User: Fold these one by one.
Assistant:
Number 1:
Amino acid sequence: MNWLYRITIGHITAIFHDYPFRYIATIFLSAFLLFQVQPMIAKSILPWFGGTPAVWTTCMLFFQVLLLVGYAYAHFTSARMKPSTQTLMHWGLLVVSLIFLPIIPDEVWKPAGDENPVTRILLLLGATIGLPYVVLSTTGPLMQRWFSLTNPGQSPYRLFALSNAGSLAALLTYPFVFEPNMTLSTQAHSWSWGFVLFAVSCAGCAWYVFQGKTTDQAISTNDLTTGAGPKSDVSVTGNSTSDADSAGAPAFGDMLTWIGLSAAPSVLLLATTNQMCQEVAVVPFLWIVPLSLYLITFIICFDSERWYHRPTFLLLSLISAGLVWHCLDTGHNTAIQYQVAAYSLGLFTCCMVCHGELAKSKPSPRYLTLFFLLISAGGAIGGIFVVIIAPRIFDQYWEIHTAYTACFFFMMLAYWRAKDWYLYNGEPLWAWGILVSIVSMIATFFWMNAVHESVDVVYRSRDFYGVLTIWTDADDGYLTEAFNYGDYKSLRHGATLHGTQYTSESSRRVKTSYYANQSGVGVAVRLNPKQLKSGGLNIGVVGLGAGTMAAYGEPGDRIRFYEINPEVVRLSGGEVHAGQLEVTQFSTGEFTYLKDCQDRGCRIDVVLGDARVQMERQLADGRPQGFDVLVVDAFSSDSIPMHLLTLNCFKLYLKHMDENGILAVHVSNRYLSLEPIVRNLARATDRKAVWIDWSAPKNDNGEQDPSPSASNWILVTNNEEFLNSPLVTPHLEPFLENPLPDLIWTDDFGSLWQIMD
């Protein structure tokens, strides 16, 4: 473990010995605040936008673009202003940024349901943390520049490693220290006081420069291209001084390579995060793991070039890419722990290669602001590609395929240009032949996986909320053994089935998949005392899917769906128009459950937007819904929108339900055990919970039900007539001992790993 000691304790000791404390404190604090605000603000707004993974990637785009703005400010003010003028300007910026405090998102930014979510998130973040984030972004390159001016002959590049260490400390402490022990409001106020402390420290550094502790001159634009300027810069290795003119200005090819070597890992970071969040949950921990690995590679590579050994990390990156391809190829059949490990290893090794090559090619400190500006530009380009471009050119999540291809391309480009390695300039030919062959084979496997995913699909679309896929097949006994209903059509959101419908006129009203008669929700509706006595049920459904729940609709019933994704509504036959928040007209879409239900005389509508946000608005307007049955089944793929399973949200559900109403929560999941959460929430709200495990479905006559899709439901209610009915009790299953009797999610606190199977 000597290498770990040398990177951590040894590195910290060296920094305190070689650098003034004012720079250490300012850079570390700014980096800490810069990266702690990211998961904090993203978690704050996550429930407003449906808890989708795209919320985090959109936030990351915002952070990367503002980081670019901060680096551009540092570069151009350093190039065009005298240090004294630059410090005066920065003092003003620090003062103005304090106006944004405290950084608490205003409720006015909650979406109504018809906005472009990406635009809304970017505007919200800009109004909440825009200028403070820009000011923090300027600190790293600006402090390194000021250090170079006040301490000629010393390398500033270790301060970049210190900056990344501060960022890593923020990320690692957030899920283990701040998130579980502070409410979001307390976090925001604490962060704001931390920003005030940073502003004071930064102003002190600026005062030292303003006092004339350096040559009062700016580097002109010509200096950036001709190599003219002070002769006390550090060499490219960052470990000894040399004549700046000998290094020369970066070539155009160098600058393009820097952008590529930073853009490809940026795409890989966001693509890896997306991949993990889609199959588990959109939670800070799964945001932080990839981002921490990404930062660790910066720390290691810029601490010292000896940590990056080209042959070793080349081999590891090729092996890890193969493991990632295996996970993509096997999909949800691979254990989530293995997936997280494989994706993390792939991200780490490829980032080590790209960031290692960046560190080896870093220029003289005279060009460090330009260097960091181009690195941040590459990061922003990667974010723009993932958030804005990819959803418009790909109908699936192919960013990870693209990212690995790009990483290996720029890796080989860096090898080609590396004068200090034996692969320089395409020699020897045999070694390049082997390398190109292996990389081409891996890239081919990735894209064959992408093409394979497109086979047998009749419709696919992608938007902010994920990938929707429709395919058709014939009932050859796989769906049913005792029945033959002919061809069927199925909807998937990500990797999870979201509804199936038979296509023939005689069979298309059959209740299928997780919603068949003997499922938990089937029992809650069919055997509801109100339904048995008088009919006319009032049913609420969180999550539309293919609209299968509408198959339960009878004349006099009312069914209200809550659906955040307008594309899902259109596929189910809803006539969605711009600016429309409630859909009441239905035609024959890809699925006909809604239209068929309406034709039978059932009142049916779909409310667009996040269910929780819309229910809060309805309650604020004095419109409690009075549901007899409320169904919660809004999971995208196996990802869990935790904000729909918190104590705060459960209390909201109950306010919209009749006193004898039944809350039916779908808890089927490949990776997470949701049963303890729902049971504890039921107890916390003084309700009883019953378990219906529909793994061996039979209909009321003892025959196999029309769909074998196993599903687990928990019904939460105080309706004793329902619970004690002899028609209901045969369907109930005994709970096992509760492994987590005290675990309750709230809006401020939530633990994912305690419920992982």
Number 2:
Amino acid sequence: MTMTAAPSTDATASSDFENHPLQSVFAPKSVAVIGVTPTPDTVPYDIFHNILTSGYRGTVYPIAPGKRNICAVKAYRYVLDIEDDVDQAVIVFPANVVERALEQCGQKGIKSAIVISAGFREVGAKGLVREKRLVDICREYGISMIGPNCLGVINTDPKVQLNASFARKMPDEGRIAFLSQSGALCTAVLDYAREKGIGFSKFVSFGNKAGVTEIELFDYLHNDPQTDVILLYLEELRDGRGLIEAARRVTRGDNAKPILAIKSGRTPQGADAASSHTGSLAGEDPVCDAVFREAGIIRVASIEQLFNSAILYAYQPMPSGDRLAIVTNAGGPGVMATDAAVRVGLSIPRFNEDTTAKLKAALPATANVKNPVDVIGDARADRYGAAVQAVLDDPNVDQALVILTPQSMTDIDSIAKGVCQLHETASKPIACSFMGAADVGSGIHLLQKSHIPHYILPEWACEAMADVQRIRHWREQPIGDIEALDVDRATVESILSSADEGYLSEDRSLSIMGAYGLPVPAHRLCTTADQAVAAADQFGYPVVLRVISPQIVHKSEVHGVALDLASADAVRAAFDEMWRRVSELMPEAEITGLLVRPMIPDGYEVILGAKRDPSFGPTVMFGLGGIYVELFKDVTFGLAPLDRHTAARMVQQVKACRLLEGARGRVCSDIEGIQDCLVRVGQLINDFDRILELDVNPLIAGPMNKGNMVADVRIRLAGV
């Protein structure tokens, strides 16, 4: 019997890719440009001319009412007049005509549309209504729409060669996909990349992203054989949760591809957000930072850094570690590079004895054979080549940085050619920094032609290497599963069913925490001093008194907290005094009672928070707590629900973790217990939509043998 092998994963992925809905966007067999004019240097003309002259392998049709031809190509009045099938439409009509043109595309059976035209949501309410009509048409006919208000789409694949944009020139073919919400930025990026010799696989300006968003583009590019790395410029997050889930699929697994992103813009916080620590600290930007990190998205600050890191990843092998060897002909830049490398988390290793011997044999006595290697200012190509080869062969080295300063005796082109030759057989990444401009220009050109990343400053090279290390570390991190926790949902449902909008009382908040397995102290709400004394006798002294009132959020401001009450007389006196003083300071406050609970032993104060973020949904916060949370803002965030690996990483990411681990010989705190609390807080806010914000501040982090304890908690609820 003949056995037939099952199709490979690669073959399946290839088949899925060829049948992907966005294939008609990137690889259409025919394109209709709707709204073409015969006037050069206008957007409609330039787009048609770009498609016509970029080497596009398909058929292009100009739709130009009233014109017989455009650029000697027969023109049509309407897209419906074209006799053959059409895969894609590029619409450049004025905004008020786009709806009618898109409707005809649907009737024609066109499956993708790039709407270049502006005049939609970006101009206000009227434009938004117009844009929604486009979305409805696309949904009715199954059209994948890029835009509106965009530059267009470019695919450099030699089998397609599509430049459906009004960019000035077709970029070179490369391994980098660039996605941008800003069309104006795209033109600048293309010019920048051309000067740097950077090529692209795909280049997409998606504008208002009314149809296809970065999420669908991630999904398509994940299996694109022409793409190795994805770059993203984003101005707004409409579906942050969807973006993160898509990014995790792209950046992990056998076919993993890194995503590097610039997220611009800041969202001002509403007045009510500042009512809790979590609300005031969980602005879009810090949440975005942390959540991107947990999705494997490398967030960068500038276009320069975006491409600095992308070219290193796209054109060099992945290093097996963070150990960097530096070869330079000038001591100062070598020291600067060393400082920069250490600052960004790279290590500068010692060479083994064999490497040191090779360097001593190849270099003059005045050279420095330690790392960084200084080949001395009069070094030529042979000396550079010997030094670079020696350090690349060292098992203690994972990557090399070659620095050159142009001196009178420096043969720049020969040195560049020598590095290029070494690069052809090297299994470790090489980056260069030929410092200067005019004098080193020809050498830089040679390096870029061989796809050796070049950086004007060695510090930039180190930053790019650090970003590649972040990619490597992300792929090595374990992927955890969200576990089913043993919690008491019924108790929480019962409490929330009778609760009004706003802050939940502390006693009920503690009950919710206890129902979800957080370590909550024994407590009792008392309305008389006798009840308070009875509770204290039961719990054991010393105890704490805390005022409970719907109108009082910050208890200490109205003397609503009494600590370390060590006897019945102390409890009775404190009870009467607190009730009196709070009533005088806030006569409008309705005092529900005073909460009695045992004093919690000393420990480090940390904060656990949760918030329903408008972009990312339920998120969890962790950091240094107590009075320091707003001062130091040493916090990080994660998406709820959390797996235990993510909770562990959150704890590790804050500086306060060093304290919890037992700084200066102190006892290590119950870090595993803190992680468990984070997982449970994440499950709580994920389970109950009415919870808008919660703060456990502080959670007292006790020693491992004693555990942690919730000292204070606030929960804010939405209306029913």
Number 3:
Amino acid sequence: MDARKTLKQCFGYDSFKPGQEEIIEAIAGGKDILAIMPTGSGKSICYQVPAMLLSGITIVISPLISLMQDQVKALNAAGIHAGYINSSLTEAQIAKVYTKALEGTYKLLYVAPERLENYEFVNFADRVDISMVTVDEAHCISQWGQDFRPSYLKIVDFIERLSKRPIVSAFTATATEDVKTDIACVLKLRDPKIVVTGFDRENLYFNVETVKRKDDYVLEYIRKHPDDSGIIYCATRKNVDSLYETLLGAGVSAQRYHAGMNNEDRKTSQDDFIYDRSSVIVATNAFGMGIDKSNVRFVIHYNMPQSMENYYQEAGRAGRDGEASECILLFSAQDIMINKFLLDHKDFSDVPVEDIDLIKQRDAKRLQLMEGYCRTSGCLRNYILEYFGEKRGKPCDNCGNCHREFTEIDMTEDAKLVINCVWETKGRYGLNVVLGTLLGANRARLKELGTTGYKTYGALRNRSETELRSLVSQLLLDGYLYQTADKYRVIRMGDIEPLKNPNTRILIRTDKDRKPERQTKTRSKKNTDSLTKAGYELFETLRKLRLSIAREEGLPPYIIFSDKTLIDMSIKTPTDKQAILGVSGVGEAKYKKYGERFIDAVIAFKGKHPDAVTNMKENDVAENAPTSSSGRAG
């Protein structure tokens, strides 16, 4: 069986997404792989398809129990035999998994990195034919990544202990150039094929809102999107609990999730969200890794995350089905203080002492760049992509800043005064001292430091603190100033040579407080936009059937069929096997399990509405099928 036939028969897709076929062909050719692909681009297909084609078993190393369980449920639903071993299983259950794997029942076996040192697992690995070791969330192996896990370092020892070295494949959604190099080196990949498909998620609309009453904003947003599923991330457990109670008090069907809850309560909350029993979940960053819920329509960050890697990974949980979705960050200056506090109390117990200072410096630098995202007046999408090394020319015209009205202020002379003040400080003080000095603030601390005697003291008292913060942020981005990455974050002189040119101007864009134009012609259209009223009615009928089957089988609804598949089914209205196999996401295994029931539902609907037109162009299904990603793997 070749890769395309496997893709269609097992997963129901007609073609590969960008990068997938290239990766699969390299694995089939015996090469190690390092793939960096954004969330929703179909990373799992890249190792699941070749696992079906390789002679032995593929060991998938995954960091979280929930991630393993979701992946294995989805594979078994697609007719692919897979198993997992983790602490949720009893010893008897684990022994049964080993037996099945040795008998050749499984093509994929998911394990946590901690399991690799277990005596029984090492013994099992010596007796089974391992064709490939796949490292999911591979950024966890890098000390310079945002989610370093020392247990991942055990992977290298495990591979080196094997009598025959298997193919090694590593996958992650977020990795800077440094992290990418680190993954390849630490995992000891041999002449790896490195594939970076790009970081852009075109269906996601990014926005930053600076609001004082965040709870009111969230309630208003949910009121305007009552049928949408969403995640709201908070920096602290206290914020999670408070916002959760506020939502419940307003009648919102919400759940919460954080590490302070017991395992049973966390699982109940997660299941209620995944199984669509609750539309919204409020959580810390303890929630989400490996959650494959495809119809999350919005992700709101109640607080600014600590890094762009964290933000993009969490925001990327929206719109995994390719549908238009929103990623909104609610920013306030207090968020910076919260994150500094959290970083100051970070656990370094598993980190070598000699590496701690460097990691702290990198954490501080990441926080600074995250703050830059929140304060920039430029294109938000371009800021994200450039952070990950992907240069863009023009603004995206599909983010909050691109749809916000700004005015430009020439602050060249102000900029020179800021630089003069930093020169007077001799690079000894942080942003608050510099701003206070320029504003002529009457503070005991400034008198104590002697900055009240500077020539620049009060030089910009005609400006607001907000304006000066924007100006300093721009000067930092342009390299005229730089901020140290230690805990004191002092401001120092950068390269000011360009400012000596009389033609150089420092232009600052300021928001006119106009709301972003959400309804824009460039915004990604929803796939349901192609459905008529009758088509949407059929879609809702199929969703109800999917939910009924999911409850019967104890599976998340999206594992039965994704929303995208149900939309395509509503457009194509299949009434026989051949027709339903032409629907995106319907393979042979899914047809055998569920196909007849969905066909019956379509036939029943057409019987009640014989003249119904379900899509905008009755005789042109192709034009109205789901957008460019329709029928592609992932």
Number 4:
Amino acid sequence: MTGSAKTDIEENRVLTGLGVSPGIAIGELFLLNRARQPGVTHAITADEVDREVELFQEAVRLSVEQLREAKDKIIDKRMHEHLFIIDAHLLILADQMFTGDTEALIRNDLISAESALHQTLEKFQAVFDSIDDEYLRDRKADLNSVGDRLLRNLRGENVPCVRGIEKKTILGAHELSPAITMQIDREKVVGLVSDLGGRSSHTAILARSFGIPAVFGLENFSSFSSNGVPVIVDGTDGVVVVNPSNKVFKEYLEKKQALEYAEHQLLESAGLAAETLDGQRISLCCNLEFPEETEHALELGAEGVGLYRTEILFLNRPDIPTEDEQAEALGAVVARMAPHPVTIRTLDVGGEKIVPEISPHEEANPAMGLRAVRFSLQEVGLFKTQLRAILRASQHGHARVMFPMISSLSEVRACKACLEEVKTELRREKILFDEKLPVGIMVETPSAAVLADILAREVDFFAVGTNDLIQYCLAVDRGNKNVAYLYDPLHPAVLRMLRLVSEAANKAGIGACVCGEMAPDPLYALILLGLGFVELSMNALFIPAVKRILRAVRYQDAEEFVNGLSDLATKEEITAYLKIEGDKRFPGLFEIP
């Protein structure tokens, strides 16, 4: 399994991508597919239209048949909780807008079924690319997977099969579909690599759930790699080494053993309390994206769900989920996590993604447009249906409801008024729910942070979304490479806003949880602790490492450490302070940037 294998690929070729599932895997590559070349539009005559439409409809029918067959063949009961992913692909194939647009292009533009499908996919992909939220943007991978299957069936090509893999293998592709990933033998497939894909894609979530190291976003890996070449996958650092030398192979083998030992040590502490040396208890919860991740989160020591995103219930389907569907899905999560709390955030997505007809014109700045609570308060009927579902789910355990992107007191009161109306309806219908359901808000706009003392009188808890709060506070689009360097969690203005929120919550006697990307970073977690935040929520994978840091420090030291930051005015001053005081107070615990 070293560079001595027969290959024309240069030795020790290193590629950097996104580490979407941690760990190190070593094996020979099994490449499923490469990047497809852009399709050339092929014109047809009017006499050929019906035939091309029939070819497309047959490809749809065959794709549905293949997905249903794949679903039926999954006999591993541990996989059944992930079958909704295949259902999501079936819903795309049933979407009349998707199939209807393709057929309309064939008829109106007189182009082939394959050309029409390419154009439809490009249009839908552009919609996903315009979404600011990484999690929602990564749903494009499901569309690509369905599109690839349809194109293969139109061309009469075989859909890749992974059931025949018989030895330790690294599975690679231009883009790995979740339907294919669900069929792998986890004893044989030890690592995943892909040109495309993000941390929130279905396949990445499956990889983390399976405990398979994975690196995505490699861009051109599939273009030069070949079957049988030895590959090292470092999902922790996001690195792939193709055709490693004997020396590099041995280095990574040692790193793999050390990493597995460290992970074992961390997991042993999963059941221990997240408590500082001087007795300050910290609640470590998980950000949940899929109901199927609850069991793994509990194993890693999660003490509840600090942020459960409800958007997945509305996406990848041709219609809006019913109240019963939402209540059943949410109730299952609440029941699984009981007695731990589950904080259910109401819809945080642009309205055009849910009800396209209400937003016929593309917004110039969707991140600050009709989204989240603004959309909910405009579409009150849809909002109340979701609130009814959340209330019904609350009877199964400890649920909490949270409203996103609050920017004013009037919005809070309007949301609470809708909630009270729904409660009255349910009482009249004699439907059970938690009468004392806690109500909270996301603090992710500067106005909410500045008004924190006023807002704290109206709600039971805060959840600080640091990603958006930093972005809005500094007027920086972190996805824009020209200004991304200005996105700084330790900017003095950001730290002051966080302190405002923490002090307002503590004074009002309500909880305040941080659920953005600052929470899982060891250094930032320590700073948040020093600011007075004793509730953190993050991807469950990071909980053991953060717990280890918190159990090794004193709360009083964290407070004093952060107090020293208060009068510093520049990033340079803060960095210098962190290096000096961090190394002095917490030697060896983390790297100072």
